[in-house]
Amino acid sequence: MSKTTTRLQIVNNLPVFRAMKRLTQEELAKEINVTRATIIAIEKGNYNPSLELAFRLARYFQTDINEIFKIKEISK
After folding, report:
1. pLDDT exceeding 70 applies to what percent of the chain?
2. pTM value?
């Protein structure tokens, strides 16, 4: 019997939330006190934010972290 492994992938909706508020990456970065490069990296999936940063984003958008960052299970 083969063993199935599960990997977790974080899918983020940050570009969607940013677009709803009609914010540029630069504007959002200034609002939450990070660099534009950080916002770009998060949106491209190259960087997973710290828990503190995820909470700051959720607070800024007045939503739950789970609405911005979703966990997707991938079976191998």
Report:
1. 96
2. 0.83
